[in-house]
């Protein structure tokens, strides 16, 4: 079979792309990547022409495996875990829990995502005043991370001890806390530090920092 091709957005701005990319890399799965810079005509409406050409939903990431197009970041992560089962925790119940928190991220944290658009390389010098629904998302996030770290912390630095898809799902959130100078409890800060120290995450981050593209509407936030 030909090498799978992962179509992604630019690394500085595309949080959903980061999730799938991390899972594939952590799983040691060979793939090629094709970057489509986000923005321009059709952006925000799933109508970027170049994205439509590779993804039926008009959104990235999309993984082409032979003739099959796997879109939706979590579906790509699940495909990766079929090749590399250690991407999920080994215990069935813990694995179910890891799937639950990954789905919660995938389907939720709407206010946090709305107010903290992914911008890996940016650092705000102040903390914006978050609306109530964003504060609620942050409280839930810290409760979730804190609970998992309390239970699985003895097995490693990640949410379920060892690196898993749950960390791929939350890694972009760690960057958002850093970008927007969010007040972050110690346990959550330590978890973010573990993500930032991960060599595969660093590879993504370095590539994002070096990208030439600028997404004006994201850069304009809180200026
Ligand atoms: N639920 C999708 C969301 C994908 C998504 O929103 N991707 C953004 C880039 S991070 C996108 O393609 N946006 C194009 C647009 O808004 O037109 C997933 O998990 O893959």
Would you write up a description of this structure?
With 223 residues, the chain is α+β, with helices and mostly antiparallel strands. It has 2 domains: 5-84, 3-Layer(aba) Sandwich (Glutaredoxin); 86-206, Up-down Bundle (Glutathione S-transferase Yfyf (Class Pi), Chain A, domain 2). It is 50% helix and 8% strand. It has helices at residues 15-26, 49-52, 73-83, 92-107, 110-115, 132-152, 165-179, 186-197, 199-209, 216-219, and strands spanning 5-9, 32-36, 62-65, 68-71. Strand 1 (5-9), helix 1 and strand 2 (32-36) form a beta-alpha-beta unit. Helix 4 packs parallel to helix 7 (165-179) and helix 7 crosses helix 8. The chain binds glutathione. This is Maleylpyruvate isomerase.
User: What fraction, in percent, of the residue positions are helical?
Assistant: 40-55%
Mean pLDDT: 98
* Cα separation of the termini: 48 Å
**CATH C-level label of the largest domain:** Mainly Alpha
| Main sheet characteristics | 4 strands, mixed
- What sort of overall outline do the alpha carbons produce when their principal axes are compared? globular
Strand sequence of the main sheet, in spatial order? 2-1-3-4
Question: pLDDT below 50 for ≥5 consecutive residues: which ranges?
Answer: none
What count of structural domains?
Answer: 2
Q: What's the CATH topology label of the largest domain?
A: Glutathione S-transferase Yfyf (Class Pi), Chain A, domain 2
Portion of residues in beta strands equals 5-15%
Number of helices: 10
What series of H and E elements makes up the topology? EHEHEEHHHHHHHH
User: What ligands can be seen in this structure?
Assistant: glutathione
Radius of gyration: 17 Å
Structural class: alpha+beta
Number of strands: 4
What's the CATH architecture name of the largest domain? Up-down Bundle
């Amino acid at each position: 079979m030909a090498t799978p091709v992962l179509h992604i957005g630019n690394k500085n701005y595309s949080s959903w792309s980061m999730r799938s990319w991390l899972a594939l890399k952590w799983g040691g799965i060979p793939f090629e990547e094709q970057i489509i810079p986000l923005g321009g005509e059709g952006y925000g409406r799933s109508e970027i022409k170049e994205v439509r050409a590779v993804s039926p939903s008009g959104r990235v990431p999309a993984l082409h495996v032979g003739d099959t197009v796997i879109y939706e970041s979590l579906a790509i992560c699940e495909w990766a875990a079929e090749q590399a089962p250690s991407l999920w925790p080994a215990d069935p119940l813990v694995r179910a829990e890891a799937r639950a928190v990954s789905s919660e991220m995938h389907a939720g944290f709407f206010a946090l995502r709305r107010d903290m658009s992914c911008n890996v390389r940016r650092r705000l010098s102040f903390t914006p005043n978050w609306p109530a629904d964003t504060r609620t998302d942050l409280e839930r996030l810290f409760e979730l991370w804190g609970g998992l770290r309390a239970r699985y912390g003895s097995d490693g630095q990640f949410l379920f001890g060892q690196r898993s898809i749950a960390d791929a799902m939350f890694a972009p959130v760690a960057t958002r806390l850093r970008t927007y100078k969010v007040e972050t409890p110690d346990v959550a800060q330590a978890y973010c530090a573990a993500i930032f120290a991960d060599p595969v995450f660093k590879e993504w981050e370095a590539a994002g920092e070096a990208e030439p593209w600028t997404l004006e509407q994201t850069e304009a936030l809180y200026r």
